């Protein structure tokens, strides 16, 4: 009987804490307007609202962060691709772009481009991207504001809670229960910093966002350059090869987020903001049993040999979920590690999950609307 009361109490507390998140989901998914265009849009809103609310409730009730975060994150990434490509077809008739599209500034601004536009913007007072400064879908100014807010509030956690690309290798790294390739040199995680420096300097010198131009794996699931000659053919081969290798095959074989951990310049940039972010994952050394589960489970290879999360930690919560001695926990920077871990976790979840709902929720909603319209 006592256990039943405890379970009931836990359910009630989880529901009460979930209610504000439900309201946030409703407000930002509808933007205060319940005049849906059609049945498909109304149904997609209902499904996505119920889905995001349920995920948050389960994170609270079950006490597992990464297990349920990964479901919402992966689903959002796939649905974003569906909705994004459908929007491009509706707006310009194709998911492919060419020089005319660039000259007309009709390319949506991607957050990864931030790593390449900073130096030219500061030195030459120009934005080296063929997108709209303030109008249309994913304008340059709106995306830069979102990136700035994410950097300050989340730091590298953006890569586990807000990046609509990160959900791809996050999801595929969870497919196998055990890795086929068990040993990876953790120094590979610093390659993303080399990519950040290389892409920033190369783009500044050429005044072209070169990562987008030649190396972005996610051209395969968003918009690719129209094939008109040998050069554009080679580019598309590179895009699809990198996507298959870095976002599907290697994450499945290693259970690591290879694209995010070793290749993405945006991840490196966001890692730098971990130094000023108020949230961190911290280790209580008195509880740590040196079992190495956190080291082996971390998808970004962010935990060092001393079992402490490093600068590349994306605060996904996997190490916390898998620590048998509860030595790892979310913490608000500046507070003692002895302060209630559950309170710090709930505060972090409200912030991180709100960002996911606001930033990715509308993307998921758009993808679901596209799917339901196809069905109906």
Based on the model shown, name its key terms.
376 residues, mainly alpha, 16 helices, 60% helix
Description of the molecule:
With 376 residues, this protein is an all-alpha fold. The protein has one domain. The chain contains 16 helices and 2 strands. The chain is globular. The mean pLDDT is 91.
Summarize the structure.
By secondary structure, this protein is mostly helical. It has helices at 2-30, 39-62, 66-92, 99-103, 114-123, 140-153, 158-161, 166-172, 191-206, 210-215, 230-254, 258-263, 265-272, 293-297, 318-322, 341-375; strands spanning 279-283, 328-332. 60% of the residues lie in helices and 3% in strands.
- Please tally the β strands and state the result: 2
What is the number of domains? 1
Structural class: mainly alpha
What general outline do the C-alpha atoms trace?
globular
- Number of discrete helical segments: 16
Overall residue-averaged pLDDT value: 91
Secondary structure: helix percent: 55-70%
The spatial strand order of the largest sheet comes to: 1-2
Strand content: under 5%
Largest sheet: 2 strands, antiparallel
Low-confidence stretches: none
Distance between the termini: 49 Å
Tell me the Rg in angstroms: 21 Å
Please trace the helix and strand order, writing H or E for each element. HHHHHHHHHHHHHEHHEH
């Amino acid at each position: 009987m006592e256990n039943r009361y405890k379970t009931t109490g836990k359910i009630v507390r989880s529901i009460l804490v979930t209610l504000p998140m439900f309201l946030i989901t409703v407000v930002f998914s509808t933007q205060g307007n319940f005049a849906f265009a059609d049945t498909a849009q109304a149904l997609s809103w209902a499904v996505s609202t119920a889905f995001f609310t349920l995920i948050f409730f389960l994170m609270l009730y079950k006490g597992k962060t990464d297990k349920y975060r990964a479901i919402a994150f992966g689903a959002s990434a796939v649905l974003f691709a569906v909705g994004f490509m459908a929007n491009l077809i509706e707006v310009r008739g194709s998911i492919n772009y060419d020089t005319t599209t660039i000259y007309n500034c009709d390319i949506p601004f991607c957050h990864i481009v931030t790593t390449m536009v900073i130096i030219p913007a500061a030195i030459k007072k120009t934005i080296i991207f063929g997108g709209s400064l303030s109008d249309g879908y994913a304008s340059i100014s709106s995306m830069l504001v979102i990136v700035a807010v994410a950097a300050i509030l989340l730091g590298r956690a953006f890569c586990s809670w807000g990046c609509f690309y990160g959900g791809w290798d996050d999801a595929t790294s969870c497919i196998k229960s055990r890795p086929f390739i068990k040993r990876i040199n953790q120094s590979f995680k610093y390659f993303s910093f080399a990519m950040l420096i290389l892409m920033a300097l190369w783009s500044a010198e050429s005044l072209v966002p070169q990562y987008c131009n030649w190396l972005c794996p996610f051209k395969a699931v968003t918009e690719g350059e129209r094939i008109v000659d040998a050069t554009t053919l080679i580019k598309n081969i590179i895009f699809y090869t990198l996507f298959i290798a870095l976002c599907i095959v290697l994450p499945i074989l290693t259970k690591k987020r290879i694209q995010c951990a070793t290749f993405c310049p945006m991840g490196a940039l966001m890692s730098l903001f971990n130094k000023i972010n108020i949230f961190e994952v911290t280790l209580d050394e008195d509880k740590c049993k040196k079992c190495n589960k956190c080291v082996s489970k971390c998808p970004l290879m962010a935990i060092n040999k001393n079992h402490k999360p490093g600068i590349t930690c994306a605060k996904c919560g996997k190490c916390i979920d898998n620590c048998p001695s509860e030595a790892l926990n979310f913490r608000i920077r500046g507070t003692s590690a002895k302060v209630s871990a559950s309170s710090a976790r709930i505060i972090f979840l409200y912030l991180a999950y709100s960002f996911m709902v606001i930033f990715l929720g509308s993307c998921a909603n758009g993808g679901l609307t596209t799917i339901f319209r196809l069905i109906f």
